[in-house]
Amino acid sequence: MNPEPVSTLPAPAVSPVVRIVGVGGAGGRLAHALSPMDPAVSAMAVDTDAWALRRLEGIPTVTVGDSVLRGLGCGGDALQAATVAEHDQARLKSLVSGTGLLVLMVGMGGGAGSGIVPVLARLARDSGWVVVVIATVPFEFEGPLRRANAHQGLTALRSAADLVIPISLQGLMRSAAESARAEELLRWANDFVLGVARELLRMLSGTPLIPLGIADLARVFRGRQTEGGAAAVEASGELRSREVWDLLCAHPLLRSPNALAEAGVIVLQVAGGPDLKIEELEWLEKRVQDAAPRAQVLLGAVTQPVLAGRLTALLVVAPNTGNTTSSSTSEAEAEAEVEPSPAGKAARKEALMFEDLVPASGGSAGRGGGGFSGRSGTGGGKTRSGFRNFQQQFDFAPRWRGRFEGVEGTLRGGENLDEPTFARRGVKLN
Amino acid sequence: MFNPGQILVGLEIGTSKICVAVGEVTDAGELTITGFGQARSRGVLKGEVMDVEKAGEDVREALAQAEDMADVEIEGVFLAVTGNHIRALNNRGVHSIPTVDRKITEEDVHEALRNAKGNNCPAGYEIVDSVRQDFRVDQHSVYENPVGVVGSRIEASVHVIQGNSRKMDFSRRAVEGPTPVRVEKAVFSGLASALAVLTTEQKDQGALVLDIGGGTTEYALFQKGLLRHSGVLAVGGDHVSNDLALGLDIPLSLAEELKLTLGAAVVDPDAERAVHTIPGIQGLPERRVSLAHLHRIMALRWEETLELIARELAESQWLRQARAGIFLCGGGARTPGLDALARRIFQLPVAHGHVQNVSGPMDVLENPEFATAIGLVRYGAMRSRQQPRRWSFPLLGSLAPRFGRQN
User: Fold this and answer.
1) Which of A309, A402, A412 sits opposite B246 (nearest CB)?
2) Which residue of A has its CA nearest to B83?
3) Are the beta carbons of B14 and B82 closer than 8 angstroms?
4) H helix runs in B213-337, sequence order
5) Measured CA distances, B140 to B91, B110, B134 (Å)
6) Cα–Cα distance between A189 and B61 in angstroms, integer?
7) Which residues does chain A have within 8 Å of residue B272's beta carbon, measured at their own beta carbons?
8) CA A53, A55, A56: angle at the middle one, nearest 5?
């Protein structure tokens, strides 16, 4: 028996629909934390663990696979979670009736999150939803099982979702102070995820100054199936637009030197109070355009009275999925060969470091292969669906900083000034 | 004889050195440096205290030296603060004149200043300094001192310098923790340096002070006697040493030594083929370092640093009007060729800043590294002179009162 039947879910709103679904333990808690922020947004949680869902008071919940697992969870077995999710398709489909923007929040690594999300994303996309997944990637010390789950889940998601925004906890840890406590770090990671989700919601709920809606997101992300980055920041004061830009450039999730330069699509959503100035929008848009000359930049702006005196910005970056068929690793290597500067060497090292977290090519899911059943190693990055089935990865490791290694960086205009100037400028010392 | 009312002490916990200056204001109002202390600095990176215990030990050593030399017992200090957390902005605050006759009083001015000062201070930050600028009455006329003017609305403009409270507490704890000395006031080090090296006339004419330290570079731009723009770039001499160590693949201590002995901020064409040989120690082979590489690494770093500051200031209309020019101080100012580089980048006359209108040991007054500590003493002297007044604080010029009430 289903302890909390699907029929208790609220009927989808007419338009536009934004639905937040937290999947798994961490995802459910994130969705629960986000739900009070905007009553117009429906948040819900999906898990295999009925007991964990009961703690999420105030939001609708769905237990998947309770006929098999009896609500006790999948014990970290992502394959089992994917199997029961496929079995419970009807129940999951009811979550995505209608159409709109679906934001899936998930902590990759556990069984439920890694197994269910690809299935749910695929079902939602097939129903016409624009699917954005915000996924935390586990720490390296969490062990091979969780890393494998995350790896497989992300691989499957690339073909199932429109945009995957991975948030590497290991990357955040590198950016955090050495003395940061585990609890602080996790709270920090949650804040990143919630910040991005909150700004996505603001995009749709604020009074539009420069409208940017679901249709725009769908147009640029639909079919891209890429793994991008996102950052949400806020500043106040006279120089708030500059501060917003500095914060965006300094953001651990966009800190990769090429994150913007190699972007294919960038969505910049700015929100402010009634005092929001056109010059601020213009200035920020120009900074983004300068930093990402090859990207298609979509600017949106909304106002909300509650933001008086403040400026918030959301930057969603999807890498270029152009004609190249090389993987990120090989691109990084090729770059390092052209420019054997210390920075180049560092970039190559980072690419290799990241490779063991998520493979850049091969092991990709086949078309419609939500979950793990459709997994196949195609190699070379070619897919049956015709989509580029691998993505460039954002690296999260710091560059070459010598004595400033491990300390808070001096960030200006997207660069960490603690790194040697000659290395950042690619000056050769022979 | 020790008189606590007249002894003022400035303390700078720098990235590479701790500097203390003890000053005394004579009956004629002149400032004399009577003692100084200096100690190596550990536990400080990019201007911020990272290890309170080590920094505290070094502070104690420098204070003890200064006490011995000046023959005083230091009870309180003006403490320089800097770091990446410092942010400076120009704020505006308005106040409606409540009286029937609409005549602006000192209270009204104070209220407008208070409103301006408190704006835009994020959680976790505190106001380090606030410097009043000009006033508008009914959005039209501009006044330096609007007391007595008739109007319905007064708008005050204030330059506010804010700092992260937690990071500033680290600096305070390094002083107050291990010693019975109290911090009288935290002062932005860029402002303190400017107070030391600029004359009233230079402030009126327009001048930029660049204090290039081990971990940070502070800047303070004056025009018409007022502080118009200030800030910190958390890049200094340590970054140059680090670049050299990484670029030349040598130990940091050797990089520091080469920077001081052979370094330059511009590439010397004569050194293109020159090679410096480092003798091998403890059986290691000797090393040969290209001077061209050394200069290029340093030039790139200094050029970038100055360009970033120039870009920051380019948005301020005041830089172009800095007719008195640019004054360099701090340890980094000793770098050969830095003045020429600054001249090329800012397109303004550049000179080394020397402490002005202060008497004392010449070796201290001429040392650019002591500018901040001496500036703090001057800050204290001006502050104590102004304390009886409730809000006005004519700190930086001879015109009308220009500073808001200090924190």
Assistant:
1) A402
2) A410
3) no
4) 237-248, 252-262, 291-314
5) 18, 19, 12
6) 42
7) none
8) 70
Which residue carries 């700004």 as its tokens?
Answer: A199
Could you give the CA distance from residue A135 to residue A113 in angstroms, rounded to a whole number? 9
The verdict on B84 touching A (C-beta cutoff 8 Å) is: yes
Kindly write down the DSSP assignment for every residue of A262-311, as one continuous string: TEEEEEEEEEE-TT--HHHHHHHHHHHHHH-TTSEEEEEEEE-GGGTTEE
Chains A, B: CB contacts within 8 A come to 81
Q: Which two tokens stand for residue A363?
A: 């092991």
Asked if residues A48 and A69 have their Cβ atoms less than 8 Å apart, the reply is yes
Q: B298 CB near a chain A CB, below 8 Å?
A: no
Residue owning tokens 């994150």: A259
B273-to-B267, B268, B285, B292 alpha-carbon distances in Å: 12, 10, 21, 7
- What is the rounded distance in angstroms from the CA atom of residue B350 to the CA atom of residue B357? 20
Which residues of A fall within a CB distance of 8 Å from B248?
A: 429
Binding-face residues of B in 178-217 toward A, CB within 8 A: none
Q: From first to last of its 430 residues, what are the pLDDT tens digits of chain A?
A: 444 444 344 444 444 577 888 998 888 888 888 776 666 667 888 888 887 887 777 788 888 877 777 777 777 777 778 888 888 888 888 877 777 788 888 888 887 888 888 889 888 888 888 888 888 888 777 777 777 777 777 777 777 787 777 777 776 666 665 566 777 777 777 788 888 888 887 877 778 888 887 667 766 665 554 556 778 888 887 778 888 888 887 777 665 556 677 777 888 999 998 888 888 888 888 888 888 877 788 888 998 888 888 899 998 887 665 433 223 333 333 333 333 334 333 333 332 222 222 323 333 322 222 222 222 232 233 333 332 333 333 333 334 677 887 778 888 766 789 989 988 877 777 5
Binary contact (A427, B245; C-beta < 8 A)? no
User: Would you state the structure tokens that stand for residue B122, as one six-digit string?
Assistant: 């994020």
B89 touches chain A (CB under 8 A): yes
Chain A residues with beta carbon closer than 8 angstroms to that of B243? 420-422
Angstrom distance (rounded) from CA B190 to CA B227: 11
Residue A325 one-letter amino acid: T
Distances (CA, A) of A166 to A2, A30, A112, A195: 32, 15, 17, 14
Chain A residues near residue B308 by CB distance under 8 angstroms = 412, 417
Strand order in the sheet with B217-223: B226-233, B217-223, B207-212, B325-329, B350-352
CA B236, B238, B243 angle in degrees (round to 5)?
105
Q: What is the distance between the alpha carbons of residues A301 and A317, in angstroms, rounded to a whole number?
A: 17
pLDDT in tens, A231-285: 888 888 777 888 888 888 777 766 555 667 777 788 899 999 888 888 888 888 8
Residue A399 backbone dihedrals phi, psi, to 5 degrees: -90, -160
Nearest to B91 among A238, A243, A410 (CB): A238
Query: Is the ipTM above a cut-off of 0.90?
Result: no
Residue B317 sits at the chain A interface (C-beta within 8 Å): no
Does the beta-carbon distance from B247 to A422 stay under 8 Å?
yes
d(Cα B51, Cα B55) in Å, to the nearest integer?
6
SS3 for A30? helix
Instruction: Give tens-digit pLDDT for B283-328.
Output: 777 778 888 899 999 999 999 999 999 988 887 777 888 899 999 9
Which residue is associated with the tokens 């949650």?
Answer: A190
Nearest chain A CA: its distance from B292 CA (Å):
10
Structure token pair of residue A131: 């699917």
**A228 contact partners, CB below 8 Å, separation of at least 6:** A163, A164, A165, A316, A317, A318, A319, A394
How many helical (H) and strand (E) elements, i.e. helices and strands, does chain A have?
15, 14
For residue B224 the two structure tokens come to 């018409």
- Side-chain-side CA neighbours of A396 within 13 Å: the count stands at 22
